[in-house]
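ok, trying the design again with the full structure, not the truncated one.
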């Protein structure tokens, strides 16, 4: 592009808009493909609110933590398969066809969930939705990156991240909109099919990725698309760059297109292997900071903080998802100016600080939970009291958290005068819940009344602000540009699978962890994982800002050695050469 390496700090957010204004076709491509990110984000956010009402409709779900975790995480399990299949499919049949297939599968899943007659059917629909999300999660940013000029590639791929967070924000708005509507969660989950239909018809009118077309020897088609993306004087240079990349692949002698031949060649190829070290590291780190515990269980976490109302929990969760969307805009503004690596490292420091603070806060909230009063508990009759409390050896030492942790059959009914005064530990049945609320008391099953609750919500907001601009969007950008063309689909697929496997582990264990070691211990555990992730990013992930794909390959051929200033020696040399 214009004489070789594009100097990174000349790349600004405004450059993206200037280029898009001259070539609006670029933005059309980016936003149409980016709807795949919207599907990803909507599915991530919508289940957190829908789960509150699914628990009310199905007693088996409300009583069994593993079933709640399964409903949430089966979409992630489907996404693991979808991401792996999507990488292979997009390499063989094209990025466009992979996105279209993802839309069809996602739509089927949304319809199945909306029509569910039992938890098993919701789980089946979640698997289908996951397949679609998994394919879209790696194919959409790949399509955008291959149809973007190098100098604004990061900002354009960030539109996918913006639409992910926008989809999460939209899901919370829709959750709130349907809280008073008959069918609540059915509408929440069913609406997910709408953006899939929209993207399907938009993508039908768009071309295939020019880089993929060139790889298939469809040179005329590739050139015609590049002419819509680049200024006339840059088209020939881009064609030459693509030709050079293909010739380099042929020179390697690794022409095999099969899965096993590609996997075999990966470990013998220094460039691809080092790219995978970086790509897989950032994807695993993204999940083990615990972000999807917030996204999938945000209303539940807000209830842990002491806000018992479903509607209140959803409204407060809307704040965190809104901050996530704002953070994505920040990423678009700075990712091509300050670099991928630096944003991720700064982001990780903020995440670790917030997780440690959240751990301390939840520990204090648990320690200062309102006591359980025998008088208050017997106020509703002895047969209404939680059996675990009646059988306790030292019931006078119980507080609200003791009651809730004793059994899933126990709930806390707050004091009528003040929710912070001693309350009742009762059997968690619909009839007794009605008696508690009938006396204008608050019913707690997930968390306890706490004066620290609002601070927990503020810290969740700070956590999102730290996460979104860096670890939220940058891992997808890194994976869209760090692999050679021939291995871009399978490399992105492997990294996406690692992301979804990590996501599955986190989402499938979060509620169980909170029961086993408490909210405070769980957040502290994620802080430890985040610290490990920070170290791994520092040592394994190079800077790729402003570089053409071919230049990234050359950088990986040399190898990467980090410096304490958070940039590689090569980066410094580039900066000094200006």
């Amino acid at each position: 592009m214009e004489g070789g390496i594009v100097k990174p700090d000349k790349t600004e957010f405004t450059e993206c808009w200037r280029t898009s204004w001259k070539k609006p076709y670029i933005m059309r491509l980016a936003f149409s493909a980016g709807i795949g990110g919207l599907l990803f984000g909507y599915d991530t956010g919508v289940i957190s609110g829908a789960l509150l009402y699914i628990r009310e409709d199905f007693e088996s779900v409300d009583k069994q933590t593993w079933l709640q975790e399964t409903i949430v995480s089966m979409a992630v399990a489907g996404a693991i398969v979808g991401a792996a299949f999507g990488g292979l499919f997009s390499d063989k049949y094209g990025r466009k066809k992979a996105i279209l297939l993802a839309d069809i599968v996602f739509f089927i899943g949304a319809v199945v969930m909306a029509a569910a007659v039992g938890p098993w059917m919701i789980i089946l629909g979640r698997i289908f939705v996951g397949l679609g999300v998994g394919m879209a999660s790696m194919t959409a940013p790949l399509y955008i990156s291959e149809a973007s000029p190098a100098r604004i590639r990061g900002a354009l791929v960030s539109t996918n991240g913006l639409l992910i967070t926008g989809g999460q924000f939209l899901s919370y708005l829709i959750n709130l909109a349907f809280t008073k509507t008959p069918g609540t969660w059915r509408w929440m989950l069913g609406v997910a099919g709408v953006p899939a239909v929209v993207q399907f018809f938009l993508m039908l009118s768009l071309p295939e990725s020019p880089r993929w077309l060139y790889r298939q020897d469809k040179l005329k088609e590739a050139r015609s698309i590049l002419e819509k993306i680049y200024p006339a004087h840059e088209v020939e240079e881009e064609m030459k760059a693509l030709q050079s990349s293909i010739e380099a692949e042929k020179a390697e002698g690794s022409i095999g297109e099969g899965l096993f031949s590609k996997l075999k060649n990966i470990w013998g190829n220094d460039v691809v292997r080092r790219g995978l070290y970086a790509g897989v590291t950032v994807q695993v780190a993204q999940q083990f900071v615990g972000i999807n515990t917030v996204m999938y269980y945000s209303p539940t976490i807000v209830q842990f903080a002491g806000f018992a109302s479903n509607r209140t929990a959803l409204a407060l969760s809307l704040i965190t998802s809104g901050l996530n969307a704002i953070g994505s805009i920040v990423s678009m503004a700075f990712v091509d100016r300050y670099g991928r690596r630096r944003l991720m490292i700064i982001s990780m420091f903020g995440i670790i600080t917030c997780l440690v603070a959240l751990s301390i806060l939840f520990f204090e909230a648990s320690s200062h939970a309102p006591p359980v009063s025998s008088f208050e508990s017997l106020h509703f009759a002895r047969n209404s009291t939680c059996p675990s409390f009646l059988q306790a050896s030292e019931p006078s030492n119980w507080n609200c958290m003791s009651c809730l942790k004793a059994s899933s059959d126990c709930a806390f009914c707050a004091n009528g005068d003040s929710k912070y005064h001693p309350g009742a530990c009762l059997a968690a049945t619909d009839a007794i819940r009605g008696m508690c609320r009938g006396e204008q008391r608050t019913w707690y099953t997930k968390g306890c009344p706490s004066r620290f609750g609002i601070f927990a919500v503020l810290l969740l907001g700070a956590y999102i602000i730290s996460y979104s601009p860096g670890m939220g969007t940058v891992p997808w950008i890194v994976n869209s540009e760090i692999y050679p063309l021939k291995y871009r689909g399978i490399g992105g697929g492997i990294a996406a699978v690692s992301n979804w496997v990590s996501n599955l582990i986190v989402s499938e264990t979060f509620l169980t962890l909170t029961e086993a070691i408490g909210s405070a211990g769980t957040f502290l555990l994620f802080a430890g994982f985040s610290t490990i992730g920070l170290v791994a990013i520092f040592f394994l992930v190079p800077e790729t800002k402003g570089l053409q794909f071919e230049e990234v390959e050359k950088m990986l051929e040399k190898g990467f050695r980090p410096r304490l200033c958070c940039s590689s020696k090569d980066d410094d040399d580039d900066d000094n050469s200006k």
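Keeping the full-length input from now on. The radius of gyration is 25 Å.
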